[in-house]
Design goal:
The structure holds 2 protein chains of 2 kinds. By secondary structure, chain A is of the alpha/beta class. Helix content of chain A is about 30%, strand content about 20%. In chain A, helix 5 crosses helix 6. The chains are: A alpha/beta, B alpha/beta. The structure holds adenosine-5'-triphosphate (2 copies), iron/sulfur cluster (SF4) (2 copies) and magnesium ion (2 copies).
Chain lengths: ~350, ~325
């Protein structure tokens, strides 16, 4: 790996909130309406190289968006730090946060919700760069028109309102808006999830083009494993706020090492595998309010042993460029027999 | 064997400010007992309206204007409102994306299930409760007796959807229509439910129409597949036929655009343009502005071309397998 541009070091993020009525009724908490702590991220460390696209995969509530928001400087981590080009993003003194956070831009799932319906597209695109003085005022108009063309839209669309665009076009606009800020890092949070397959391919192609033309560094958050495989160099698998496996995409897909990664791959239907060719992971996703002790995956893991219930597995190397957090990996225990 | 569900020429129109739109256009397909029919298509293609039309649940400004819906040989469209209501729930049941469309938030699961049982089948409360417990077991709910005492919001999203499916099963219906029933769920939970649905079709002999936008789901779940585009079924066949050897250019385009079928990092073949608005369809074949095979002929209505039971609505179908 070349020099990391982005370093995420032992980041944890906890949210404190009051339990909802449903949760209280469900009897998940004793102590009535007292605030509870959500362990959204626990001890996550990652490095992203310049020009790299890192995929972040995991099921709902595992902390993917929270990680994206911490990197974008929207949330301050509870502990740990994030540095971009050697400068801390997290726990910044006030003045700096502004300048730095424009260097990480997020693109969200719902392209409509993220665009102001009453503002012409050109205005929406110009707003950020103008406010932050990123593009000289007299060049804004030309730059915006060039950007629209870069994302495969007509320059004349600058004068239209968002509702005049289809879902795929709106997502192109959202990408253009992020690029207008000339960011160092893009965070795409389920950016193609709401698009129809035929439109999804168009947006993925655009992303791959831009990536090559501009040398983009990106975090690509998605629950769609085949999309992630297609556009990412490396992939991080998360479970209940923790990183459980990290590997180059080709290695991960050819040989998933963590039992959760394996189970996830096996449980996802793919086109053309034929009837019934998937295996379900048993059990439910545990609550991040009361994560199971030891390895959080142990209640659902076919290999779980006594050690798994007591001790949190550490991320350890599982090859020159890959890591995995599972006792099977460091104890030399094989998958047939389970952890000691 | 008579089909459990036989839909013939179903057509549903909506009155809109832009004039009439035909959301479901001459839709025909049949589902045999114990088989799963995957109804797949992109957003706005008419999947949900098809489901609602089958059940006679279309309200103004919409209207089913033509067609027959035969369930075990009885045409639902010929029934009185009262008889149709009796058929719904008993013979034909529906499962929605949001289980709270089925579940009553203020009633315990057991109470609403026993009520639902006794609407169509006279039996004692305790017998009905037994019946409900069995239905929960069928959909893989652990410790069903406890869940019967729970309110819907005390269950996880996956559990709620299972309860909704169990409700649909209560009267051993001949036909179950499920609309995006696992779309909102996590992949691991979706996997569990799909496995149970497959078993359910095999064991109870219910005919299932599984509506989804997810090709991967239909490809691994369904026996037969219908592909919808702009209100029409443009291709219909067994899952092997449609996935393995699509004959409609749109089906081919959809399958081609799936990343898993290509070398990572390569440009994906893409269908140009975007999904059409029903109020602004071209003359003839609705796919024509996006179709790589289109000719002048495509400005006229495409014919139904049937080969080995695989049917496509196209002037220039592909070879298939
Ligand atoms: N602002 C917040 N306040 C309280 N809890 C939060 C907040 N943001 C996230 N959480 C909680 O933190 C956990 C992780 O949430 P996050 O949105 O990062 O998950 P995710 O992996 O992005 O899930 P999804 O796939 O559903 O988008 C969840 O349990 C969520 O409820
Ligand atoms: N009440 C209504 N009034 C007018 N048009 C309607 C109404 N309901 C549905 N339509 C139209 O019918 C068409 C088909 O809608 P439908 O909901 O069946 O699509 P779908 O295939 O289920 O899409 P999705 O995947 O987004 O659920 C759409 O173009 C929609 O605009
Ligand atoms: S640490 Fe134990 S429970 Fe966790 S994934 Fe590994 S074997 Fe399974
Ligand atoms: S009828 Fe013509 S335009 Fe329509 S799908 Fe067939 S070839 Fe394409
Ligand atoms: Mg998220
Ligand atoms: Mg629908």
């Amino acid at each position: 790996m070349t020099v990391p541009i982005l370093m995420i070091d032992a980041v944890s993020k906890r949210f404190t909130r009051r339990p909802g009525l449903a949760e209280r009724l469900a009897g998940k908490f004793t102590g009535g309406g007292k605030p509870v702590t959500v362990h959204a991220l626990t001890d996550v460390s990652l490095e992203v190289a310049k020009g790299e696209v890192l995929g972040i995969v995991g099921e709902s509530g595992c902390g993917k968006s929270t990680l994206g928001r911490v990197i974008a400087g929207i949330h301050a981590p509870t502990s740990g730090s994030v540095t971009l080009n050697g400068q801390q993003i997290a726990d910044q003194r006030r003045g700096n946060i502004h300048k730095l956070t424009t260097q990480v831009q997020m693109i969200h799932q719902d392209p409509f919700a993220s665009l102001n319906p009453r503002m012409k597209v050109g205005e929406t695109l110009a707003e950020g760069p103008r406010y932050h003085g990123i593009i000289p005022a007299d060049q804004v108009r030309t730059r915006i028109r060039a950007l629209l063309e870069q994302v495969g839209l007509e320059a004349a669309y600058a004068d239209r309102l968002p509702h005049q665009f289809s879902g795929g076009q709106r997502q192109r606009i959202a990408i253009a808006r992020a690029l207008a800020m000339q960011p160092e890092v893009l965070v795409l949070d389920e950016a193609v999830a709401s698009l129809d397959v035929s439109i999804q391919a168009q947006v993925l192609n655009l992303f791959m083009d831009l990536r090559h033309d501009l040398g983009l560094t990106a975090l690509f958050i998605s629950h769609d494993l085949s999309v992630v495989r297609h556009v990412c160099d490396r992939v991080a698998i998360m479970y209940l706020g923790r990183l459980v496996e990290l590997a180059p995409a080709d290695q991960l897909y050819a040989d998933p090492r963590h039992p959760y990664t394996r189970a996830l791959f096996a449980s996802i239907p793919t086109v053309g595998t034929g009837r019934g060719r998937f295996e379900a992971i048993k059990g439910e996703i545990p609550s991040p309010i009361a994560p199971p002790p030891g390895c959080a995956f142990h209640p659902r893991c076919p290999f779980a042993g006594p050690r798994c219930r007591a001790e949190v597995p550490r991320l350890t190397t599982a090859g020159p460029v890959r890591t995995v957090a599972c006792h099977l990996n460091d104890g030399g225990v094989d998958m047939q027999k389970g952890a000691a | 064997m008579t089909a459990a569900l036989d839909v013939k020429g179903l057509t549903t129109r909506f009155e809109t400010r832009a004039g009439h739109v035909t959301a479901v256009n001459d839709v025909s397909f049949a589902v045999q007992p114990g088989r799963i029919m995957g109804l797949v298509g992109e957003s706005g293609s008419g999947k949900s309206v098809t489901g609602f039309s089958i059940l006679g649940l279309i309200d103004a400004p919409g209207e089913v204007t033509a067609g027959a819906v035969l369930v075990d040989g009885v045409d639902l469209r010929q029934l009185s409102t009262e008889d149709l209501r009796k058929m719904r729930g008993r013979k034909v049941a529906m499962v929605f994306q949001d289980p709270m469309m089925t579940l009553n938030p203020v009633l315990r699961v057991g109470d609403q299930m026993t009520m639902a049982v006794r609407v169509h089948q006279p039996m004692s409360k305790s017998d009905a409760l037994q019946h409900a417990r069995k239905a929960l077991e069928v959909v893989g709910i652990p410790s069903p007796a406890e869940r019967l005492k729970a309110y819907p919001h005390q269950l996880s999203g996956g559990m709620r959807q299972r309860v909704a499916i169990a409700m649909a099963l209560l009267h051993s219906p001949s036909v179950i229509i499920a609309d995006e029933a696992t779309t909102a769920l996590d992949v691991s939970i979706q996997g569990q439910i799909l496995a149970e649905v497959r078993e359910l079709a095999d064991e109870t002999g219910a005919a299932i129409v599984w509506i989804t936008h997810d090709l991967a789901v239909v490809s691994s779940l369904a026996d037969d597949i219908c592909v919808m585009y702009a209100g029409r079924i443009v291709e219909r066949g067994t899952a092997e036929q449609v996935i393995g050897g699509p004959r409609h250019p749109y089906t081919q385009g959809l399958l081609d655009s799936i990343p898993a079928r290509h070398e990572p990092g390569r440009k994906l073949p893409q269908i140009p343009g975007s999904t059409p608005q029903l109020s602004r369809l071209p003359e003839g074949c609705p796919f024509q502005p996006r179709c790589p095979r289109a000719t002048d002929l495509c400005r006229t209505e495409p014919p139904l071309d049937v080969r080995d039971g695989q049917a496509v609505l196209c002037h220039h179908p592909l070879e298939g397998v």
